Write the structure tokens for this entry.
Amino acid sequence: MDNKRVFLIVLDSMGIGELPDACRWNDEGSNTLGAIRNHPAFDCPNLKQMGLFNIEGVGGGVPSPSGSYARLVEKSLGKDTTIGHWEIAGLVSERPLPTYPEGFPEEVISEFESRTGRKTLCNRPYSGTDVIRDYGKEHLETGALIVYTSADSVFQIAAHEDLVPVPELYRYCEIAREILQGKHGVGRVIARPFTGEWPFTRTANRHDYSLLPPGETMLDRLSSNGFDMISVGKIEDIFAERGVTEGHRITGNRDGMEKTIAIADRDFNGLCFVNLVDFDMKYGHRNDVEGYARAMTEFDSQLGELLPKLRENDLLMITADHGCDPSTPSTDHSREHVPFLVFGKRARRGVDMKTRPSFADISATVLAYFGLPQGETSGNSMLDEFLIPDDGKLMRMAEDARKMSYCPYSGFSVGAALLTEDGEVFTGCNIESATFTPTVCAERTALFKAVSEGKRSFSKIAISGGKAGEEGQFCAPCGVCRQMLSEFCGPEFQVLLGTGSDFKSYPLGELLPHFFQKDQLNQG
Ligand code: THU
């Protein structure tokens, strides 16, 4: 089966240390992982083995991590969930979503009042339970709507269900959503219905109206090209459902991972995009270091259940959308780097992809894995750095290497691409000499490059050759190269011969049976 599946898990707020511009956000010194990693309740062997601590700037890595890893910079000017996820999905924001610490401006309120036919109350940041206690009576007496905000980019409308039926409140939210675009494009408009007698209680009819992403995202590209785009948790809200082909609501981190594990038992072809919000909502904002550490430990153990379910063509990616250091006085998000870990049978182990300039590199990588052009999405793919090439790709790398051939005497150019056991590729071309005999074949160039870099174990070589300037043809390795390959490679080692589109694989044992064995040197 050719299905490809990517599991992309966002540990909401799991930053790994301040960004260079953190001081402009009053977040100097913030390091969410740093704040929890030494707590006794923190025990994350799976993340550790995958390379979480091998990431640049993190410290305390393991000697041979099972995954590849990078540290990502947030390019967008923001540090909230929406902007962080949009960037992960390839959409970079030039400015943060607007917040209204002084309340919404007159232009917004007057248009809202005239289009709803109702006056408004409050219009400033307020706690959701306090606001109905303090303004609920006046609301019932005058029919004016309670409009309030928070430290987040939200426009919230509270109304009593007996006075304003829920569908009517939802209609007011839709009006607000239409008004709040562009400069006043708040992240969410939220319906906050309440009921009963003073001090009133909120009902379960809360409803969020997210801002549509103002450009194309990885989700749009995947779904419009026929791939599955499965949302777990609040992903579907963050993208206002656009580009989502299937959504799963969750009650918390544990439930989110259980649903993800269940999805891993199914067939699909595309992305399963997961957000685990407890880290942020329950522990980061509440400055609960121990709770955060425990939640990570729980995630890590569930990760241990997910790993064995990964199939041949699956990639698991783990990242975050911003920081929220629970050890600093601030209860707000922090402007931090985020981790990127990638793991799977087709992913190399231990590739350090260093610090990269945007979360959007994740989107570019996912799209590249599914063979889709990036369209309007941003980012630079990391795929070539960590993906173990398949046979076709290895053959194309041999063809590319062939372009470097130095063959003025024979006019016969050859390229080779040698795959090491750990997934790295060394390429080579033939290099000729005016005295002819010192000529080195493409295969040996590749092999010598690899051996001189310390490599000793290999799994495959692709060879492409032919008259220079013409299409490749079937070009079998010479006897010297066969003998030289036998020095390092066993009889199962695969030799791919042909062109990028048409090739065959031969075991080395078939191409050179009864080769000269090194232990013969010690005989007699
Ligand atoms: N050559 C290779 O590089 N690899 C092979 O498998 C066969 C031959 C080169 C050596 C020389 O430069 C040219 O092809 C013609 O023999």
